[in-house]
Design a protein that fits this description.
This protein is mostly beta strands. It has 3 helices and 25 strands. Strands 10-11-12-13-19 form a 5-stranded mixed β-sheet. The protein has a 4-stranded antiparallel β-sheet with strand order 1-25-24-23. It has a 4-stranded antiparallel β-sheet with strand order 2-3-4-5, with no helix packed on it.
Length: about 325
């Protein structure tokens, strides 16, 4: 058996195992950072966490204990006395992933797209900090996402998470306004779009997703990363009492879940109701609005990283998280 076929077989076995196995989740924290407002996107690279807030003017770097070690100004936003960008002006940076392309490593930061103009911007920020952020208008791509999903005229996407896996970029649309949807484009096409060499991405796949319900409301995608050893996307989802992408609501709880890439074929719908685990702490539902997950160490059985929460009070909460696949095939 050649090496490529053997590697493919191992990935398929790992993906099946991730789909069948139960997941044990251990949380430590929170660590609260009031000086970092509304944490919404997080990545891990080079021994540091990178964190963006949906109403913050900076990209922050944090050490493994969540101490802030630096910050990069993203743009010249007008800020209020508390350092936050006013809600009607905020760029709503909700999604972020680390992208390695053409010999460089970038943090790709995306506005949610949930308001025309102010929330339709994407940024490429070099992880080494040696160049100014590059800005891209995402309206054309987001408009194509909405049309592909059959949204009613005038209805906008609400992109809350981004993950890079095996040459593809996965965009997660949060379903508090419309539906939970995954969109897939190739990284090469995405980076060509971000660089301005193309204005449209021709090939886009999508998958409709069903998530668990809590308090009568369906959870909405909020964050994502890739677990390579089991060839699976790890996602977070949260539940709050708001029926649109603009207003905040009471926080009911959050989930962590797995999507084996082997399940993502031919635009098949995803039933994730049995593939997501409600976060608890000390036997109680953890009422925090998890916005992102960043994995920093992974094996075929265990992943370690961090969660960031934005509870709409102007601060950010951080949790260490350890995910362990168990042998129990309960799901």
């Amino acid at each position: 058996m050649n090496l490529r076929l053997w590697a493919g077989l191992l990935l398929a076995i790992a993906a099946w195992s991730a789909q069948a196995a139960d997941l044990s989740i251990r949380l430590t924290g929170p660590v609260v950072r009031p000086e970092l407002s509304s944490g919404s996107g997080m990545t891990w690279h080079g021994g540091r966490y990178f964190v963006v807030g949906d109403d913050a003017a900076y990209l922050f770097t944090l050490d493994p204990k969540f101490a802030i070690s630096g910050r990069t100004r993203l743009a010249r936003f007008p800020v209020q006395a508390d350092g936050r960008i006013a809600k009607h002006l905020k760029p709503d940076y909700e999604a972020m992933a680390t992208v390695t392309h053409a010999g460089a490593v970038w943090n790709l930061i995306l506005g949610s797209g949930s308001r025309r103009g102010t929330r339709q911007t994407g940024l490429l920020v070099a992880t080494d900090g040696r160049s100014a952020p590059r800005t891209r208008d995402m309206a054309a791509l987001y408009g194509d996402f909405a049309r592909l999903a059959g949204f009613a005229p005038g209805v906008l996407v609400n992109i809350e998470a981004l993950a890079i896996a095996r040459g593809d970029a996965w965009f997660f649309n949060r379903g508090n306004a419309v539906r939970n949807i995954l969109y897939r484009v190739s990284v090469d096409d995405l980076m060509a779009y971000m660089g301005g060499s193309i204005d449209r991405i021709e090939h886009i796949d999508l998958h409709e997703a069903s998530l668990p319900r809590l308090g009568g409301r369906e959870a909405g995608f909020s964050g994502a990363d890739y677990w390579p050893e089991i060839d699976s996307l790890v996602f977070t989802a949260s539940v709050e009492g708001a029926d649109n992408a603009i207003d905040d609501g009471a926080v009911l709880g959050s989930y962590v879940g797995l999507i084996a890439l082997a399940r993502l074929k031919d635009r098949a719908p995803l039933d994730l109701r049995e593939s997501a685990w409600l976060l608890t702490q000390r036997g109680m539902v953890l009422k925090t609005k998890v916005e992102s997950i960043a994995l920093r160490q992974t094996t075929a059985r265990r992943a370690r990283g961090a969660l960031v929460s934005d509870n709409d009070d102007g601060s950010s909460e951080f949790f260490d998280v350890e995910l362990t696949l168990t042998s129990a095939a309960r799901r």
